[in-house]
Amino acid sequence: QVQLVQTGSELKKPGASVKVSCKASGYTFTDYALNWVRQAPGQGLEWMGWINTNTGNPTYAPGFTGRFVFSLDTSVSTAYLQISSLKTEDTAVYYCARGGGWLDPWGQGTLVTVSS
Amino acid sequence: DIQMTQSPSSLSASVGDRVTITCRARQGISNYLAWYQHKPGKVPKLLIYAASTLQSGVPSRFSGSGSGTDFTLTISSLQPEDVATYYCQKYNSAPWTFGQGTKVEIK
Description:
The complex is a heterodimer of chains A (116) and B (107).
Chain A: E1 3-6, E2 10-12, E3 18-25, E4 34-39, E5 45-51, E6 58-60, E7 68-73, E8 78-83, E9 92-98, E10 110-114
Parallel strand pairs in A: 2-10
Antiparallel strand pairs in A: 1-3, 3-8, 4-5, 4-9, 5-6, 7-8, 9-10
Chain B: E1 4-7, E2 10-13, E3 19-25, E4 33-38, E5 45-49, E6 53-54, E7 62-67, E8 70-75, E9 84-90, E10 102-106
Parallel strand pairs in B: 2-10
Antiparallel strand pairs in B: 1-3, 3-8, 4-5, 4-9, 5-6, 7-8, 9-10
């Protein structure tokens, strides 16, 4: 079945970097875009952007430029979200989700906690 | 960027009630709208896409309607397992903004 499996939880200090992976299975990886969505504690869903899995070209939503980088390794059907210079306000669950419009399915989410 | 405004932000209804959630776009988005159900500790689940197309496996008590700027998600007969936060999302052009969510509880 179609599945997205993400990295486990991460605990990082402010200023550090984190790289979250999202491994796809059950379909041809390059047939669908891959999106990233954030949910901060007590907040709603925020669309961070998406990456074209054919070209590797990323599109970032406002507010997610600069410290956020989407990348791919198509040889292992995996997408990555890297966040640098982490801040406490980056503490959130980060989801990957397949789709070039509506999002389905979603990965299980990765909790990134930024704390000193 | 087109903002998506959901209402109400929360509601409480009895089992069996008909529940309606609305989502409004500041500019027309044709039918490029999806609805998701998000239960605490779970992964968001796609309910409806293209404003009114029910995703496979989703119970038929869920329905969507609308086009342009005004959209509706309806639960025809609320069930205990429907307790969740519901989000609309537009995808006509980037950024694919979510609404702020509607929390549905049982009275």
